[in-house]
Amino acid sequence: MARVIRFHRHGGPEVLRIEAVDVAPPATDEVQIRVRALGLNRAEALLRTGTYIEAAKFPSGLGLEAAGIVEAVGEDVTGFAPGDKVSIVPPLSMVRWPAYAELANFPAEIVVKHPSALGFEAAAAVWMQYLTAYGALVDIAGLGQGDVVVITAASSSVGLAAIQIANRVGAVPIALTRTSAKRHALLDAGAAHVIASGEEDSRAQLEAIAGAIGVRVVFDAVGGPAFEPLTAAMSPGGILIEYGGLSPEPTPFPLFNVLGKSLTLRGYLVHEIIRDAARLAKAKAYILDGLSNGTLKPVIARTFRFEEIVEAHRFLESNMQFGKIVVTI
């Protein structure tokens, strides 16, 4: 028997329960992991509330990131052995392979031996944020030296990962955040400039910072009315990559900015990197290299115990965090 976290109906954090279940041995091509830490993601709150791209099947598990120790390996698995310290790339289905558990099975293809210097808490905070940011900025946008990139929801784990990747390639990261409360923390985290969108004229600030060069890349998790000032500050041929929808307001299509500048507005999910073996291999190599040389370093906002999962989800929904929320077992 092992403890797992499940929910039997949609709702707030209080629907999460810790239950004891029998965990099957790993199937062919699977690895069983004794989990030591979990990384929390907004997708898990969306699944819990019934608003995610995947539907829960009750009683439903959840969770996309974990780090721990290999307990057992299934048939045809090579390269892993019991005792190995590993972490997981987010599975394509968290209903099929939920991570919130003491003991869990995952496809061997998404299990990674992370750098030995990385502790379990940091390792559980790696893959969702860096894969998401890498896929958008490097794989799709081709972000490079001197490019100006705007990163919204900049204090999220993905936002901070994007700042680090932008600095790694020599780009100029501009962090957008709602208020000035996190300004100094974002500057310390590597942002070249910080704009408090709820307190400042975003368009005027972006145009003053970017000047004649303009903003070539926008990495946006918010949507909503911000599309107008963001696209107005973009350079001809620029690309806006949308990977979320945090704004409760409608998102207008900035027709004349898009037409006049030949802009690209592109929807993006990290799944397109994860399901493509060649692209995923390049992404993993890039991220592992950055973790090894210190140019990529997960920022952990707060750590909770497994037994505090309800409190951890409440904190996740508070939007008060700066970086990744981690749960330890």
Write a structural description:
It is a single chain. By secondary structure, the protein is an alpha/beta fold. It folds into 2 domains: 2-126 and 298-328, Quinone Oxidoreductase, Chain A, domain 1 (Alpha-Beta Complex); 129-271, Rossmann fold. It has helices spanning 42-49, 120-123, 127-140, 157-169, 183-188, 202-210, 227-232, 255-261, 271-274, 277-293, 309-318; strands at residues 2-7, 17-21, 30-39, 60-61, 65-73, 85-88, 103-107, 111-112, 148-151, 172-177, 193-196, 215-220, 234-242, 264-267, 300-305, 324-328. Strands 3, 5, 6, 7, 8, 15 and 16 form a 7-stranded mixed sheet that branches. A 6-stranded parallel sheet has the order 11-10-9-12-13-14, sandwiched between helices. Helix 3 (127-140) crosses helix 4 and helix 3 (127-140) packs across helix 10. The longest helix is centred in the C-terminal third of the chain and has 17 residues, at 277-293. The protein is globular and about 60 Å long. The mean pLDDT is 95.
